[in-house]
Amino acid sequence: MGFEYALVHLKYTIPPALVLTLLYRPLFTKLDAYKILFLITVAVVSTIPWDSYLIRNAIWSYPSHVIIGPKVLDIPLEEVFFFMIQTYNTSLLYLVLTKPTFHSVYLRVERSDAHPLGAVNPRWRHYKMFGQMVFGVGIVAGWRMVKNNGHGTYTGLILVWAAPFLLLLWSLAYQFIIGLPLSNTVLPIIIPTVYLWGVDTLALQRGTWVVTAGTKHGIHLWPGLDVEEALFFLLTNTLIVFGQLAFDNALAVLYTFPDLYPNPPALPSPSQLVQALLVPASRYNKSRVVGLQDAVTRLKKKSRSFYLASSTFQGQIRTDLLLLYSFCRVADDLVDNATSASDASEWIAKLQRFLGIAYADGEFRSRDLYNMLRNGFPKETHSALMQLPARKLSRQHLEDLLKGFETDVKFSKEKESPIQTSADLELYARRVAGTVAQMCLELIFNAYQSSMSGKDKDKILAAGSRMGIALQYVNIARDIKVDAKLGRVYLPTTWLDEADLTYKSVLEHPWGPEVETVRSRLLDEAFKLYEGAREAIEELPVEASGPMRVSVQSYMEIGRVLRQDGYVVKAGRATVPKWRRIMVARAALAGRV
Ligand SMILES: CC(C)=CCC/C(C)=C/CC/C(C)=C/CC/C(C)=C/[C@@H]1[C@@H](COP(=O)(O)OP(=O)(O)O)[C@]1(C)CC/C=C(\C)CC/C=C(\C)CCC=C(C)C
């Protein structure tokens, strides 16, 4: 009996597990726990018979003075723990590295433009076959080495065990694996592999475990590390990462295509995951994937706060929020970038007609929508309008949002400011942002069915509306100068009066101590509303409350920056440095703000 193998865990496998757990803890969700537990179960169940065979056939061994004693089918308990902790560590690293990735946009529709509808792009077939050939050759070569029972036995046993699983996972998820950035695929394999090569070298040198001489090649990757051991850690980490990737591929299919999966579960069963993976990529809805790609690009370009926040949402709700953002952004830009006030009013009228069709029933809805977009809207807006998750949103909120945009147009049409009093300001903010907040909440209620009563939901919706108003006040406080350039002053004229300012004077000189007084007043109002509404976030389903805290806090942080002296301005706007945004997001997820 001895503790040397246990010490390897204490020194080398448990510390990275703790570090990764601490790092990822604020982002950890039920779905992550499900994925990791699922993979650990598969790893343990599939490795035990194989490892037991290797130990019984003396391919490798453990001197009795290095292990505590208890065994499972001749495998020391420390070794069983190794399968678990390696799967845990590699999985967690994968989750850390892939958190910002929105997987739906990496689904590839296997259809080339040069081919008739439904034909598979030959390029994809080649990729698939190449991978299958590599793993197929691995299986055959491994089998031969095992049969020869010589120096290649250990390599052969690794190959015949790992390559069939890799072949299966590759065949199911190859297009997803190829399409993702290397930081999501190669990096989570390479980092733990090289680390474990180092740990293995130390353990082999100390004799904690021993690889028998007659069944290995005797070739070393570096002094003390047998190539078989190097191959073992490379393939086991590849298996773990491919397993995670296949899981994410299945989830992406479930959450991307409502025509295939209208009500995807928040925690899909293994059979639902396999079914999703088996859907041929030729059945994927290409316009849906393009719509999501456009939405991500738009969000990344236009809002750093919401881009960061969106990565903390998972599954269906992340998709829905992105699509809602894309619609709101496009609608707002159509009105803001119009060449004249009448042009802007025309866009609002068109958007109203669009909603009329989007909310209509009947068999010609899709055709009418398509015709309306083709004849009435610029091409780059089509995907955002077409993919609006209208069925999950109250039409009234979208109508009110458009009414809010009408206020924006009034600035160019009328000589007087359309915002005279605090009540005018509140109504405007409720329309353009309170509605957005309520729509975000509707999507959350839709994605996470709960037993909450209608009355409780209404209370949360009302708090959400107040919080939306708070965010809009921060938005106005940030943009006084930018808005003045567009000919708009959203500060109520009664407030301007009290600060010895006029609508016209702020339009011409949107800076100075008096303007700062009004900005401060607006920020005070924003924080008052925020304080009064923030508790309602805790009533949301747990999967949504953390990410919603991040969304709100990232935006309110702009307000906090504005309250500091000498804040940094970029393109006329106060900005929150990236490191500060990340710290705020972490604290918000951990519930510390
Ligand atoms: C995480 C994620 C992807 C969220 C998406 C949120 C979303 C759908 C935002 C739409 C944004 C948008 C373009 C709306 C059009 C009207 C508008 C301009 C509203 C203002 C947003 C400011 O965005 P930005 O700074 O990029 O705009 P400009 O450059 O100035 O044009 C708003 C300030 C509204 C933002 C409001 C929300 C995102 C609602 C957030 C949710 C809550 C407050 C609910 C909180 C819940 C409880 C229970 C209190």
Automatic annotation (TrEMBL):
UniProt entry keywords in alphabetical sequence: Carotenoid biosynthesis, Isomerase, Membrane, Multifunctional enzyme, Transferase, Transmembrane, Transmembrane helix
Transmembrane segments: 6-24, 36-55, 80-97, 129-146, 152-170, 177-197
Catalytic reaction equation(s): all-trans-lycopene = gamma-carotene; gamma-carotene = all-trans-beta-carotene; 2 (2E,6E,10E)-geranylgeranyl diphosphate = 15-cis-phytoene + 2 diphosphate
Any GO BP: carotenoid biosynthetic process
Any single Pfam family the record assigns to this protein: SQS_PSY
Gene Ontology MF term list: geranylgeranyl diphosphate synthase activity; intramolecular lyase activity; lycopene beta cyclase activity; squalene synthase [NAD(P)H] activity
InterPro entries xrefs: Isoprenoid_synthase_dom_sf, Lycopene_cyclase_dom, Squ/phyt_synthse, Squalene/phytoene_synthase_CS, Trans_IPPS_bact-type, Trans_IPPS_HH
Record keyword Acetylation present: no
GO CC terms: membrane
Pathway(s) the chain acts in: Carotenoid biosynthesis; phytoene biosynthesis; all-trans-phytoene from geranylgeranyl diphosphate: step 1/1; Carotenoid biosynthesis; beta-carotene biosynthesis
Subcellular location, record wording: Membrane
The keyword Membrane is annotated on this UniProt entry: yes
Primary site of residence: membrane
Membrane topology: Multi-pass membrane protein
EC number: 2.5.1.32, 5.5.1.19
SUPFAM superfamilies (alphabetical): Terpenoid synthases
Similarity comment: In the C-terminal section; belongs to the phytoene/squalene synthase family.
Name assigned to this protein: Bifunctional lycopene cyclase/phytoene synthase
